[in-house]
């Protein structure tokens, strides 16, 4: 998770993300991060429409915390708009360029955490600042591929 102000922690989840694991991530990581970064309760949380994000229990959690931050409504298919995808690409490139390559899960976790902590401030700030241009490009492409 990240904002214009800072990178949050990289949350490594074992196995497949489901509504229960996602609820734990929200309660244990997202909520505290949002309270610190947005003490005036003016933060906006972005997520896609993955099944675990739209589960009834997760929607209920967001309802319970609606006074603390806003969940950005998200179109059904929107890969061009989701800035976190750019950070995942960045991590992928950094880890693939490592020599030697991570050989097990522990080494991969360490490599990912190191790559995450070394993302330059300009990288995530530029991603946040690019949202208006992304929206304009998607509108110009009539919802199709925008190049982002």
From TrEMBL:
An example Gene Ontology molecular-function term: nucleic acid binding
Domain Tc1-like transposase DDE: 10-97
Protein name: Transposable element Tcb1 transposase
Record organism: Araneus ventricosus (Orbweaver spider)
């Amino acid at each position: 998770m990240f904002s214009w102000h800072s990178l949050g922690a990289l949350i490594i989840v074992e196995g497949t993300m489901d509504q229960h694991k996602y609820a734990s991530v929200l309660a244990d990581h997202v909520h505290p991060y949002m309270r610190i970064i947005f003490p005036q309760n003016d933060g906006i949380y972005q997520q896609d429409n993955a099944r675990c994000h739209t589960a009834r229990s997760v929607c209920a959690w967001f309802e319970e915390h609606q006074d603390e931050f806003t969940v950005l409504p998200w179109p059904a298919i929107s890969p061009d708009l989701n800035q976190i995808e750019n950070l995942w690409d960045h991590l992928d490139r950094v880890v693939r360029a490592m020599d030697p390559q991570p050989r097990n899960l522990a080494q991969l976790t360490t490599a990912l955490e190191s790559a995450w902590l070394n993302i330059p401030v300009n990288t995530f700030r530029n991603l946040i600042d690019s949202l208006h241009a992304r929206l304009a490009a998607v509108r110009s492409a009539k919802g199709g591929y925008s190049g982002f």
